[in-house]
Automatic annotation (TrEMBL):
It catalyses: S-ubiquitinyl-[E2 ubiquitin-conjugating enzyme]-L-cysteine + [acceptor protein]-L-lysine = [E2 ubiquitin-conjugating enzyme]-L-cysteine + N(6)-ubiquitinyl-[acceptor protein]-L-lysine. One of its GO terms (biological process) is protein polyubiquitination. This is Probable E3 ubiquitin-protein ligase HECTD2. It comes from Lynx pardinus. Residues 1-25 are annotated as: Disordered. GO terms for molecular function: ubiquitin protein ligase activity. InterPro entries: E3A/B/C-like, HECT_dom, Hect_E3_ubiquitin_ligase. Keywords: Phosphoprotein, Transferase, Ubl conjugation pathway.
Length: 662
């Protein structure tokens, strides 16, 4: 992508070096005479050419590449770090200079020196202060309205910033948006009608920083640092409907910039969208019944699952296939031959039992990789892939019905699940295929990925020493089968010249081609439930958190939200319990969570969403604690000492595999 090359203007002479500036600043601090420092700031911030003269590494070099902005970053940092400690008149001088230069540079195409000036001005710490927001907004608008080729340069320059400076830019923009939405002093800003472009401009500049962050591996800051929690308090459904109606056209919506919307807010959007779809489908069922003069039945408002424990998978598959039109209704589960209303516990038990059965190694659908502690799709060919569709439906129902599943898929699975995020209208379009690398393979089969990386970096003769071809082998039911990675692959040797292609084709074969039918069934199952445009707002990592919960544990938050039955929170047994649990290492805390809830992860809404309960178990204190995972309930005997409680609790939570479900 190339911007039109404009002649660079001749820069004014700027003799000051960083050392000169620092010496002047030190002298001013001790003598109180700030004239030299004032003159420097006055000249430097007076115009775009002066900014370049001061901070360009070499005034005679054009620096027209995306790789090097040509700016002396250390000097820029030193000048900005000193600025906030200078007298007020100097700080005002800088702002006046910026106003003049922004007004002056408004017309005509941009040179690379102009882009450098924008890049420097954006880092000004004065823009943390709300009194400068009018100037800041104009700077953001000019950057936001640059042509795409200019944005391309800025993105690549942003990614070269230090983590500290990059994070400051992001936080400053997020704060600007928050305070424009909810000003502490509304009179400080122009009326919202006169500055409706403020937030769209800031969001566009944030998107450049987000793009820059995604180009760096590992990213400069976590993607969650772009979340703006203030947006949790606005009418998100209005934002969503605006985006649905107008897309990315002239009507602004935060949904155009989903990276700023927190996972909690996205979950609300998905749930509300789901609820609206549920209500609309249930209403249609009701209308159909009434129009046929039939008596409405409350059961028609739900997805009613009737299953036998002894035939759990086949019954579930039959029910979901028969009731395909009801998938978006609220889920209710009944176990045949058992009394009991489903108040949520039976639904959770159905999920737990089904997941446990389907993912069991003997079942053959998924392979568990011990090195990476995750499941992956079995590549064995079969006549019917409907059970993979069932797993997809289960995941979709879990998101729809706010159930956290104890599933361990690698991140690459969620990337494939969003490829594309909406089912394509053309049924011949491939689904679940995404670009994959050895990094993705490493998350599933680290040893194989390591071997392929060594092949890429091998310094000897690959063809003679490895003696490989573009043919790979897989064992299926005890029989070794061969597959060509490209036509005639068995006749093409792997060499130093073509090894990159070999590795790419091999990884693509393992993660895409060899499991295409299995994953496509899984993809269609998930999207048959979660057919919502809201999925387009999600990153793969966020889909994983919606399905499986977050790995971040906060046991203090769990303590604050725990309910008690038969105990009071001041009882000695309960005080012992929290002393012990808060002192546990992370692995034991995770085991406790898994023992009591069926998963060692936390729902999107945090620990409070677990509705965790501790009940008094009036049995002998020789007994171990018991858990009702379907209700997130721990039954605790009234142990008389902290030592006894700790010992029994550790035994209970460490040996519960296969027994924890009640």
């Amino acid at each position: 992508m190339k911007a039109p090359v404009l002649p660079e203007p001749v820069l004014p002479n700027q003799p000051k070096t960083m050392k000169d500036f620092q010496e002047d600043t030190e002298k001013a601090k001790s003598s109180g005479d700030w004239k030299a420092v004032h003159d420097f700031y006055l000249t430097t911030f007076d115009s775009f050419p002066e900014l370049n003269a001061a901070f360009k590494k070499d005034a005679t070099t054009s620096f027209n590449t995306i790789e090097d902005s040509g700016i002396n970053a250390k000097f820029v940092n030193a000048v900005y770090d000193a600025l906030l400690n200078t007298p007020q008149d100097i700080q005002k001088t800088v702002l006046k200079g910026i106003i003049n230069s922004l007004l002056r540079e408004w017309k005509g195409p941009r040179t690379k020196d102009d882009l450098r000036a924008y890049f420097i001005l954006l880092q000004n710490p004065q823009f943390n202060n709300t009194s400068t927001y009018v100037i800041y907004a104009h700077l953001l608008r000019q950057i936001a309205t640059l042509v795409e080729a200019d944005h391309h340069f800025l993105v690549h320059w942003f990614k070269k910033l230090s983590q500290k400076r990059f994070k400051q830019l992001v936080e400053r923009l997020l704060q600007f948006i928050s305070l424009r939405l909810f000003p502490a002093k509304p009179e400080e800003f122009p009326p919202i009608t006169k500055c409706s472009w403020w937030i769209p401009s800031a969001s566009k500049v944030l998107s450049l920083l987000n793009t820059a962050n995604s180009l760096v591996h590992p990213p400069l800051i976590p993607y969650t640092d772009f979340y703006n929690s203030t947006l949790d308090h606005i009418d998100l459904m209005e934002e969503y409907h605006t985006w649905q109606s107008f897309g990315n056209s002239h009507r602004f919506s935060f949904c155009q910039y989903p990276f700023v919307i927190s996972i909690a807010a996205k979950k609300i959007i998905i749930q509300r969208d789901s609820e609206q779809q549920m209500i609309s489908i249930a209403r249609q069922s009701l209308v159909d019944k009434v129009s046929r003069r039939q008596r409405p039945d409350m059961n028609m408002l739900f997805l009613n699952m009737k299953v036998r424990r002894t035939h759990l998978v086949s019954d579930s598959l039959d029910e979901l296939t028969r009731k395909r039109a009801d998938l978006k209704k609220k889920l209710k589960v009944t176990f045949v031959g058992e009394a009991g209303l489903d108040m949520g516990g039976l639904t959770k038990e159905w999920f737990l039992l089904l997941i446990r059965q389907i993912f069991h190694p003997d079942y053959g659908m998924f392979t568990y990789h011990k090195d990476s502690h995750c499941h992956w799709f079995s590549s064995f060919k079969c006549d019917n892939y409907s059970e993979f569709r069932l797993v997809g439906i289960l995941m979709g129902l879990a998101v729809y019905n706010s159930i956290t599943l104890d599933i361990r898929f690698p991140p690459c699975c969620y990337k494939k699940l969003l490829s594309p995020p909406i089912i394509p209208s053309d049924q011949n379009t491939p689904v679940g295929i995404c670009s994959v690398t050895t990094d993705d393979l490493c998350q599933i089969m680290p040893e194989l990925a390591h071997g392929l990386s060594e092949l890429l970096s091998y310094e000897g003769n690959v063809e003679e020493d490895f003696y490989s071809t573009f043919q790979v082998f897989q064992e299926e039911f005890g029989i070794i089968k061969s597959y060509n990675l490209k036509p005639g692959g068995d006749k093409i040797p792997v060499t130093n010249q073509n090894r990159k292609e070999y590795v790419q084709l091999y990884v693509d074969f393992l993660l895409n081609k060899s499991i295409y039918k299995q994953f496509a069934a899984f993809y269609y199952g998930f999207h048959s439930v979660c057919a919502s445009n809201a999925l387009m707002l999600l990153r793969p990592e966020e889909v994983e958190i919606l399905v499986c919960g977050s790995p971040e544990l906060d046991m203090h938050a769990l303590q604050r939200s725990t309910q008690y039955d038969g105990y009071a929170k001041t009882d000695l047994t309960i005080r012992y319990f929290w002393d012990v649990v808060l002192g546990f290492p992370l692995d034991l805390q995770k085991k406790l969570l898994h023992f009591t809830t069926g998963s060692d992860r936390v729902p999107v809404g945090g620990m409070a969403d677990l509705n965790f309960k501790i009940s008094k178990n009036e049995t002998s204190t020789n007994w171990l604690p018991v858990a009702h995972t379907c209700f997130n309930q721990l039954c605790l005997p009234p142990y008389k000492s902290k030592k006894d409680l700790k010992q029994k609790l550790i035994i209970g939570i460490s040996n519960s595999e296969g027994f924890g479900l009640e």
